[in-house]
Write a structure and sequence with these properties.
By secondary structure, the protein is an alpha/beta fold. Helices cover 44% and strands 14% of the residues.
């Protein structure tokens, strides 16, 4: 099951939510929409990989223009766990920069540590609350703003280094030569 919404706001962030539980998918989808996220929901790790274009035998060309800003996945799912999905995403050169948040109803410290060590942005206990979603949104917006400022600063430095010295006025001695 997938839900694809048309992006109406240029600053609207797109979240891919992955959960095998229909009820949990509906809850997280509602929380994300209330927080002005654009949401795509899928019911398994393999469907998430298909959507992201990481599954070899599936074609996701129809979704190529949809940038995903965040992936939220349940930890315990049949077939592929959220941890396995996290590892596949973090091992992909094209997707490793996308933040992944693991959700679980089980508060197991070794599991939490393992997910965070593997590159998870956060580990949320279910039921996920609106305050959790808002905190994630603030974090993503801050990170994206920092990245944009970094790129702009790099471009300015590069332009300063590449610009010709034509803006320098010749000194009187050089002008006479």
């Amino acid at each position: 099951m997938e839900t694809i919404n048309v992006c109406t706001n240029a600053r609207e962030l797109h979240v891919l939510a992955v959960d095998d539980s229909n009820i949990d998918r509906k809850v997280i989808e509602r929380l994300l929409k209330v927080s002005s996220f654009k949401v795509t929901v899928v019911d398994s790790g393999s469907r998430a990989l298909q959507y992201l274009g990481l599954e070899d035998d599936k074609n996701s060309a129809q979704f190529d223009d949809l940038k995903v800003n965040l992936i939220m996945t349940d930890y315990s799912m049949p077939g592929m766990t959220g941890f396995e999905l996290l590892k596949k995403i973090k091992n992909s050169s094209a997707l490793k920069e996308i933040p992944v948040v693991i959700m679980s109803s089980e508060n197991i410290l070794t599991r939490i540590d393992r997910c965070l060590e593997e590159g998870a942005e956060d580990y949320l206990l279910k039921p996920v609350k609106l305050s959790d979603v808002r905190r994630l949104k603030d974090s993503i917006l801050k990170t994206e703003g920092d990245e944009i400022r970094q790129i702009q600063s790099h471009k300015r430095k590069r332009n300063d280094n590449l610009s010709p010295a034509s803006h320098l006025k010749p000194t009187p001695k050089l002008a006479r030569l």
